[in-house]
């Protein structure tokens, strides 16, 4: 009996992936948990295993294809005793799988069509389209020409989702929430150019950041912390643990400090629910750490930071950072974050405005520390101190400016007080 292998849901926040390797060929025998292909998403590489014994009869994907959950991957011949009793639906001839090029959202499809500059007034409604009677009837009622759309259904069929997507796009564009498609520009007319394709991680990260920027009212609070004593303490820990081959950076201390403040100000460790009417306060502290990799930015999550020591966090960060750069992170290791830290201190800069990583409501950006002359009230004199500039971007629907200023001031005080950093 022939069974179809369908791409399952890939996990929270992963809506598609690219085939990086097909590990089987037609005619191969496979068993449960044998790897069929390897996918690469914007977050991680993952293996798709077989769930049954059988022989591969057809492979419908190849390296480089971009897939979404529900896509038909392969067909496998299994014996009757490997399957449940066949139902009439199972015995129907399988429909032709949609091509990779046609797997787009209804809005993306309609944007492409709108760029052709056809409008509702340019051509009359005709019946020379592939759509169901219900879709045709609704299009006639709304005076929408189906010929200006690209269908995403089987064999180019215009679905109800395509029509709804077109209607939503028209409403969004009329209200100014969606910009018109960009005009193509031939930059080579002014000189020599080079085209460099964005990596998949950069493309998808860019789309998500743009969506976050458009949907979240961002405000950024800037501050600085005196980390002179903390820096000396960190150096002493590195000397004591030199035989453990673990380098202690500032990041574990920042994670512990921010967790202390999150417990005191729980609205910063929250998310809005799907209605945007209720705030979900989280009693766990999973801190996302932005990691720069050759393919782009990724954000692994360190869980239960409040329950771990500085040494534990140092070891875990080294492991996560290494596997992030090698694309070996697991999908679960990038889910469930409650707050994010983005550190550019090792590179430079005096400050920046990070973009909130939804569904979180705040993110902290760390810039390069430097020696500064700071006035000491107790001695009425200036002293040289090691100062760390940082910023806090937040969702203004949840957090107001006074709370943000309180958060950054408290965070600076926690960093300056060594009693908070000794396990």
Protein model, in words:
The chain has eight helices and 19 strands. With 423 residues, the chain is α+β, with helices and mostly antiparallel strands. The chain folds into three domains: 2-97, RNA polymerase II/Efflux pump adaptor protein, barrel-sandwich hybrid domain (OB fold (Dihydrolipoamide Acetyltransferase, E2P)), CATH 2.40.50; 106-175, E3-binding domain (Dihydrolipoamide Transferase, Irregular), CATH 4.10.320; 201-420, Chloramphenicol Acetyltransferase (2-Layer Sandwich). The strands form five sheets. Strands 9, 12, 15, 16, 17, 18 and 19 form a seven-stranded mixed beta sheet that branches. Helix 1 packs across helix 3, helix 6 crosses helix 7 and helix 6 (251-264) packs across helix 8. It is globular, with a radius of gyration of 27 Å.
Reconstruct the topology from this structure:
Layout (H helix, E strand, L loop, with lengths): L1 E5 L10 E6 L6 E2 L4 E6 L4 E5 L4 E6 L6 E2 L4 E6 L28 H9 L18 H10 L17 H16 L24 H16 L2 E9 L1 H13 L10 H14 L5 E3 L6 E3 L5 E3 L1 E3 L2 E3 L2 E2 L7 H16 L13 E5 L18 E5 L3 E7 L4 E15 L5 H16 L7
Parallel strand pairs: 12-16, 16-17
Antiparallel strand pairs: 1-8, 2-4, 2-7, 3-6, 4-5, 6-8, 9-19, 10-11, 12-15, 13-14, 17-19, 18-19
